[in-house]
Design brief:
The protein starts with 7 loop residues before the first strand and ends in an 18-residue tail after the last helix. It has 2 domains: 76 residues, FAD/NAD(P)-binding domain, CATH 3.50.50.60; 92 residues, Guanine Nucleotide Dissociation Inhibitor, domain 2 (2-Layer Sandwich). The protein has 3 helices and 10 strands, in the order E-E-E-E-E-E-E-E-H-H-E-E-H.
Length: 196
């Protein structure tokens, strides 16, 4: 069901998840894990807003040694803000755009009534911009943890470019579901017959 639009998350009479509905098709599932965009507002609490700008460049970010990949964090204190501002840039080397094109993303938590002005110090670091797409989105958190309904909702993506908060959120959900922490350092046990 790749690229299927989820029209509804279905529940039984006791409030437990039974699956999802996509048009006339239904997929049954005892557990649903999703981000806030798949569920209804009554299951969410808005926490903040994030402004994101996707900028198409025909050059690497100036003063970065012509790097094909860059992550920059502008500390809040430097811009007299409460939250950091993030810049990440990728390029043809990452197979996401044509050769000679660079895609820079700027993001931060909205603190004023003029969010586009808040990202201007970061935008100015990029040099000439061919095209820019700006959006402001609400950051949501689930009202409940999913234990009673088996609907596990992640938090919305925060403005950071390194996905630490999102990764920790997923690890927390895994632990709540399984009762144990996910240890990514443990190697799988070898199966002597199969050789792995």
């Amino acid at each position: 069901m790749l690229n299927a639009k989820v029209d509804d998350i279905t529940f039984d009479g006791s409030g437990k998840v039974t699956g999802i509905r996509c048009g006339d098709e239904t997929a049954s599932a005892p557990i649903v894990i999703c981000d806030p965009s798949y569920t209804t507002q009554d299951r969410l609490i808005p926490k903040s807003q994030v402004i994101r700008a996707i900028c198409i460049l025909n050059h690497p970010i100036p003063n970065t040694g012509d790097s094909a990949s860059v992550q920059i964090i502008i500390p809040a204190k430097q811009l007299k803000r409460n939250t950091d501002t993030y810049i990440s840039m990728v390029s043809f080397e990452h197979q996401i755009c044509a050769q000679g094109i660079y895609v820079a993303m700027v993001s931060t938590t909205v603190e004023t009534s003029n969010p586009e002005e808040e990202i201007q110090p970061a935008i100015q670091l990029l040099g000439p911009i061919m095209e820019m797409f700006v959006s402001v989105s609400t950051v949501y958190e689930p009202l409940e943890d999913g234990k009673s309904s088996n609907l596990w909702i992640t938090k919305s993506y925060d403005p950071s470019s390194h996905f630490e908060v999102a990764s920790n959120d997923i690890l927390e959900i895994y632990e709540k579901l399984t009762g144990q922490k996910l240890d990514l350092n443990v190697e799988p046990e070898e199966d002597e017959e199969e050789g792995y």
